[in-house]
Design goal:
The chain has 264 residues and is α+β, with helices and mostly antiparallel strands. The protein folds into two domains: 35 residues; 226 residues, Lambda Exonuclease, Chain A. The protein contains seven helices and nine strands; from the N terminus they run ββββαααααβββαββα. The strands form two sheets. Strands 4, 5, 6, 7, 8 and 9 form a six-stranded mixed β-sheet that branches. Strands 1-2-3 form a three-stranded antiparallel β-sheet, with no helix packed on it. The longest helix is centred in the middle third of the chain and has 29 residues. It is globular and about 75 Å long. The protein starts with 6 loop residues before the first strand and ends with a helix.
Length: 264
């Protein structure tokens, strides 16, 4: 039998022991049977299907319109249209996968850059063969970094809330222009409101363990298709409104797990 891959992580000055399972990307608290709920697991309870449905239907429409423009001067049978329709309705799969690849490449590079700064190692090179969308995203991030006074303190930090019993991994903690800052990198087409609730969860757990006040939360957003760059600031007032929503989503996730357990 293959040995389970796992990593032991100590938190709260060694008082808390968490086991991380890289293969499934899940966490367990020492002595507990069930997996911990993650920040993204909790915020995943927020429905965002409407935005995805609109995006998918527009892709289908665009694909069919483009095809009709190509064949409008040719005669074509109904039977020949069936495969085209089949392809159109799943067009979002190909578009999503390609865009996700670009986004992952940008996100991974920025994480490597942040980690190198924390560990005082050489910065990663920008791959010469990277797609133009990836190069645009990385270049935009570096432009922001060079225009601001940024000092990375922590990168890919595991956080855990003893009070609310959830876990997560924040992107980075840094001082940005003198402010103690929580950074979250987003490389999607847009920034959904669940990102705000995620940041609230990260901030709450980080402050709980380290007793350090986070002055500001910044979402570094890079469009995975165009490379467009923007910084979204979340204030303390935003946090006070976002945290109760995050904790409510956490309760929903916890209850859903209980109900699914008993329904099986």
């Amino acid at each position: 039998m293959e040995k389970t891959n796992k990593e032991i992580i100590k938190k709260y000055n060694g008082k808390v022991e968490i086991t991380f399972y890289p293969n499934s990307h899940r966490y367990k608290l020492a002595g507990r049977k069930n997996y911990l709920i993650s920040v993204t697991g909790a915020t995943g309870m927020k429905d965002k299907s409407r935005h995805l449905m609109i995006w998918a239907s527009r892709l289908c429409k665009s694909f069919l319109y483009d095809y009709l423009e190509k064949i409008k001067s040719d005669s074509i049978s109904i039977n020949e249209l069936y495969p085209v329709i089949d392809e159109a309705v799943v067009r979002y799969d190909a578009e999503r996968d390609e865009a996700a690849t670009f986004g992952d490449m940008v996100h991974d590079w920025i994480e490597s850059f942040s980690r190198a700064k924390v560990e005082r190692k050489k910065e990663p090179e920008i791959p010469d063969d990277a797609p133009i969308e990836v190069i645009k995203g990385i270049t935009a991030f570096l432009d922001w970094y060079n225009k601001n006074k940024v000092k990375f303190i922590k990168s890919e930090e595991l956080i855990y809330s003893m009070e609310h019993e959830y876990v997560g991994k924040l992107d980075a903690i840094a001082t940005v222009n003198g402010k103690h800052t929580l950074l979250d990198y987003k490389t999607g087409k847009g920034v959904y409101t669940e990102a705000y609730y995620q940041e609230a969860g990260y901030k709450n757990a980080y402050e709980e363990e380290y007793k350090e006040k986070i002055d500001q939360q910044l979402i570094i957003h890079i469009d995975k298709e165009t490379g467009k760059f923007e910084v979204i600031e979340r204030t303390e007032s935003d946090y006070e409104k976002d945290l109760p929503v995050f904790l409510a989503l956490l309760k929903v996730k916890r209850r859903e797990k209980e109900l699914n357990k008993w329904s099986k």
